[in-house]
Amino acid sequence: MINLNSRKALIFSTSAIACSSALVIISAYFSDDSAAVLAAASFPDTQNYWAQPFIKSLADRNIVTGYPDNTFRPLKAVNRDEFAAILQKAFNQKAERQIASGSTFTDVPNGYWAAADIKSAYEMGFMKGYPNGEFRPKQPISKLEVIVALARNLKLPTTRTAVNNNQTATNPPIAAAPTATSLPVPVPVATPQIQSAPPQRNRQQMMPMALTTLMQPFMMTPARSVAATTPTTPVAANDNPTPAPTQTAPNPAVVVPITKQPLSPSMVVNKYYQDAAKIPADAIADVAEATTAGIVINYPNLRLLNPNQAATRGEISAMIHRALASQGKLPPITDPAAVKYIVN
Fold it and tell me: DSSP string covering 255-300, please?
């Protein structure tokens, strides 16, 4: 005979074991990267930070991660190895080059945590080493290096496109004032029409043949006069060497297009950055391209690029997100507090 208390104890023990197994399975399922993604939305040090929408969007996709204490540290400088890891997760570019078999960077030992990411970033063309064979993984990456890496290896779209006014018949176009860049637009001129006199009934007049012959020169003169005042086909140049200029009235229904010439790279950087003189000559075109595409972030001063300053985790998150959004891989951020630091 089975004791009732023993049966209850057995059922309780079995249930406890089942619950423990379930917890182990759930814990294993949400370990490592999955746990980081779940905690991404609750970084306590980004809640009031300007780049929080960019950081959250990337963290939700495991492109950036936080630290074991559940902080993100958005003001912390990013090292070259950390940037390589972010690039490897954010972009799936085809390899442009291959590291020779058996050849590695002298300062990236085997088993280094970012060795595979560094190799991938190098082969995709985003990053390169130094002439002495070093990669310098622990060296902070500058903001200029981040911008150049994105501009040279991504097909960034241009945002300087003509704006279509979508004018309709209910909203008639407004005449534009002539400008230095305006192109002349021919205005159609109405050809004057002469109304002919109403037809009159023909009257037969009988004249002597001799009188008709004598009056023939006088009868042809009115015909030539009428022909001179009646518009006909254009007169040959030899017949009328100095034609009178035709005065045309402006037509208010004609819109004069304004042709806007694109700015040169030097003009772009000088237009947007007060410290444009700090940009190296070989990087001006890259900075201008990234600026035109709208992926450059300047915080807190929109007019200061600070190209040689170490890029922070918050800045890099924002620029990576902008680059992915420009490719249509992520929806753009619309939070006014975040987008106000986007240049252009």
Answer: ---BPPPPPPHHHHHHHH-TTGGGS-GGGHHHHHHHHHHT--B--S
